[in-house]
Amino acid sequence: MTRYTLPVVLLLSFVSHTSTSSEELTLKPPEHDLFNSSLYAACRMKPNTQLVPGMPKVYGHVLFKQSGPEENLQVMFKLHGLPASKSQSRAIHIHQYGDLSEGCTSTGGHYNPEGVNHPLHPGDFGNFITPNGKIRRAIDSKATLYGRLSVLGRAVVIHEKEDDMGRGGDAGSLLHGNAGGRLACCVIGISSSKLWNKSKQ
Description:
With 201 residues, the chain is of the alpha+beta class. It has helices spanning 5-27, 31-34, 171-176, 194-200; strands spanning 39-47, 59-66, 73-80, 89-95, 101-104, 124-129, 134-141, 155-159, 182-187, 189-191.
């Protein structure tokens, strides 16, 4: 029996080391080390290709920065093309798929990896008022760019209506906040720090 002890131990050690290395690579993509131990991502917003005539055409960027897997994700919205209003809010959420083959419709429902009710999804960003037709705002989010729950490759969608924050009293409220049609969307992709730093200037 003892003659197998050393090979078995070495095999277990190799498997353990391989698993740990794979996990570390998953948690920290190479870009983490390129930009002062942070990850950056960008999402270039474009109007939904399925919009009916007369609907607002929204453009701009949603930018992301996260300084490590345990840190809060910072999100910066720089959007324009919305009707000017001091009362009408627009909801913004992360959706499951980065698939724009059918406009914003093919992005699926809210990204909800834990199977919880809205508004507890990691990409439920809430409502934004556009008094000058623009959104210029920075927030912290529970979403992440790291690990198996990363939002990289998923979509950001800006909606036609206000998010009822789960208080609408129906099934739709707990799924998507009854935020209505999808005005514009974009796919979140890993990026350099250039856009983020430019936006902070």
